[in-house]
Amino acid sequence: VLLIPIMLLGIAIAMVRRSSNTVLSSNTVPSSNTVVEGPRTDAPMRLLRWATGLLSAQRSEWGQAMLGELGSIEGRGRRWRFTIGCVGAALLLPPWERAGAGVLAMFALAMGGLGLYASVIVRYGLGSKSLVGVAIVSIFLLSSALAALVLLRRPGIAVPGLLGGLFAALVWLAASGFTFFNLIDRVWPAWALPVLLIAVPAVIGVLGTLRGGSAAAGRRTARLAGISAGLGVYLYGTLAVAVLGAGGPPDDSGFSANYKIDDRLGNNLIFYLAFLPLVTATIGWSAAAITARIRHLPDDADATHLPATSYVSTATAYVSLPMPMPYNAEPTVRGGVAAWPRSARVGLVSVAVAGMFALAFTTGLRG
Amino acid sequence: MQRNRPPSAQTINVLRALSADPVQWRYGYDLATEVHLKSGSLYPILVRLADRDLLETSWEPGQGSRPPRHLYRLSAAGRDYVATLAPARAGKTAAHRRSRLSEA
Question: Which of A88, A89, A318 sits opposite B58 (nearest CB)?
Answer without folding.
Answer: A318
